[in-house]
Amino acid sequence: MQTKDKPISNTQRNKKATKRIIVEVVIAFIILIPAIVLCIYWKQLIINRIFKTILLKPNTEGYDAWLHPPTTITRGYHLFNITNPIEIVTNPTSTTVHVKETPSYSYSLSSTKQDVQWSTDNKSISYSIHRLFTRHPTQFNPSFVNDTGVFLDLVRAIFRTQFQAKAAQAFYDLAGMEAFPHRNAVEQLEGFTSDLFKSIQDKMTGPNTAKSGFIYRYNGSRSYNYTIKSGLMEKGQVLAFASEHIPFSFSSPDYYGFPIYDGLTFVPMLFDKPSLNIFQPDFCRPLNVKFNKVLSMFGGIEVHEYVIKLVDLNQCNDVNDINTCPELDKLDISQCISASLPENTIFLSKAHFYGSSNETIEQMNISGFTP
Known about the structure:
Radius of gyration: 31 Å
Strand order of the largest sheet: 1-4-5-8-9
Structural class: alpha+beta
Shape: elongated
Low-confidence stretches: none
Distance between the termini: 101 Å
């Protein structure tokens, strides 16, 4: 027995097509709506997760990360060996100083925050920073301990400033006739003693006074004391600073007229901060850092590269805006090294005077710096 298929009418065909379209639209909405919502709020979700991680309050994940940062700090120190000391002594006014850079002496730096005290409202936090330098286990070549040369004797330079341009015989009787002594390079960092050092030792302040040495003075000591804001959007802004080594301190958040950060606390929302002012306690002043570009490092992690600017805080067109301060080739940090030093004795510059004008480099009369 045969049956004939009934022809499907256009109306039925249209109904089926309509139902199919409706089902497809519903499925599309089920898929697309969460995707649209996720796209809209994805950035905020990520930001909220980051904020939860970096929130600086007692007994939080952010506080634990702040106390024990997961990063490892490596510092490389370079000294400059003066290669023509006899010529300088023979004819000091016209002789160009020739220097040769030492290898990089690499040290691992562990910075821990101690003596932590919260304000009663948890809006600020006071702490001291302890720094411990150790020779880098792989980058510090054991043979470096045998390196010698003629290096600038900071102790002699500080002592020399107590005399006139032409020093009296008493200076040489106390400091020695040898203006450029030959010394061990690593000891200039890790600590050394001399007869001259012993004569001024009782004038030294702070811990670690048994020797002289850049790393030695800070190693293992409670170097600096900060009070910072702990609020989410202003975290790390410095309210007060004091040091065991130098008389410089301040206790007002408006001391500079613009926000400064401690450089030891993660600053949130970096993409909204093309320029930052980081207080550098070793030099008793804030240094301006300006965003330069994004780099891919550490296996593909994107990091921000900043360029340091040395600016004159006393010549700003607007005291509340560090970007209006003129940029300098070098900064006088004499008073940060010692309160007894006269001005323009010790300067801070970019490494090898990078970015300095030709006039500044020519005035230095030093050969061997390669920017």
